[in-house]
Amino acid sequence: MRRISKLTRVAVGVASLALAATACGGTSSENGGSSETKQDLGLAIAYDVGGKGDQSFNDAAYSGLQKAQTEFGYKTADIEPTEGETDADKEQRLVSLAKQGYNPVIGVGFAYGPAMEAASKKYPKTTFGIVDSVVEGDNVASLVFAEQEASYLAGVAAAKATKSNTVGFVGGVDVPLIHKFEAGYKQGVQDTNPKVKVISQYLTQTAEEGGFSSPDKGKAAAEGQIEKGADVLYAAAGLSGQGVIEAAAKANVWAIGVDSDQYKQEALAPYKNRILTSALKDVGGAVYTLAKSVKDGKPLNGVQTFDLKVNGVGLAESNPEFAKIAGLSAAVAKAKEGIIDGTIKVKTE
Predict the structure, then answer these.
(1) Which of 83, 302, 347, 348 could form a disulfide with 3 if both were Cys (CB 3.0 to 4.6 A apart)?
(2) DSSP letter string, 330-343
(3) What is the pLDDT of residues 288-331, one digit of tens each?
(4) How many domains does the chain have?
(5) Which residues contact residue 24 at a Cβ distance below 8 angstroms, ignoring those fewer than 6 apart?
(6) Coil, strand, or helix at residue 168?
(7) Which residue segment(s) compose the domain that 86 sits in?
(8) 346: in domain
(9) Same domain for 164 and 248?
(10) Phi-psi category of residue 74: left, alpha or beta, with phi > 0 → left and psi -120 to 50 → alpha
């Protein structure tokens, strides 16, 4: 039986990187690249498509790793994906990390599902974690989020901010996970102002086609939506979302970021004034929480759900312009209250 719990959000900070050498993907090492097997080295994460530097999903996971490293003072490793890799490649990466003694080992993204299932069986004494998917196993923690709830709040913001009554959604890959983002966003828009039209587009059918890792694809999609009159664009597309934000900024319309507070991301600083808000997903907090549970000798397993009630998802208000849009802050606060108390039921499809 899976143990289901909801965890409190942990604030995370980003510091400098320390890596450890392993197979299948780019990496570097704190201890000179030794391949010697060690025990209880600490946390290791394997990135999703787009890798570190996406200013979004993967970077959020990285921030949790850095908090754990700073607080616990142990070794960490974070490993980049490789282009065109197979499930076997992912499994080898996870197995290599477990063999070296890292604990926990976390796969960032649903694409690690089959690899996680196989690797966790080979190392039953190691705690594994997977973000955005559910994998059965006594030593596996499935870190899942209510993305639709944060996206609903983003939809409320879009409906309040639009002047053209047309807004856009750009999804990276046409998969159930991203459908949750779209469903919540559309519902938030329509519940706030039924007159607002939502234009939706997915960049690719599969991750292998670059839907989460191609800013040029995101930029082209955004430009097309802007031509159709969209003046608020929400991207749930990983690294591709940077292209959406760039296009929105150049056209002087609003962008809504995802996963991390993209208004604060250094790489997006040239466009920050047009990033109205971001639908937050505390991947870093989830990564840190699992690492802490292992450090405390009480490793989590089963489904760990992060939603609005525990601040596992939310909406950023870092841009000062957010508070200047008439009725926006109040509408978001009211929607958040409704979702938490159950009077608003957010769709996932």
Answers:
(1) 302
(2) HHHHHHHHHHHHTS
(3) 999 999 999 999 999 999 999 999 999 999 999 999 999 999 99
(4) 2
(5) 79, 82, 85, 89, 90, 92, 93, 96
(6) strand
(7) 5-145+283-310
(8) no
(9) yes
(10) beta
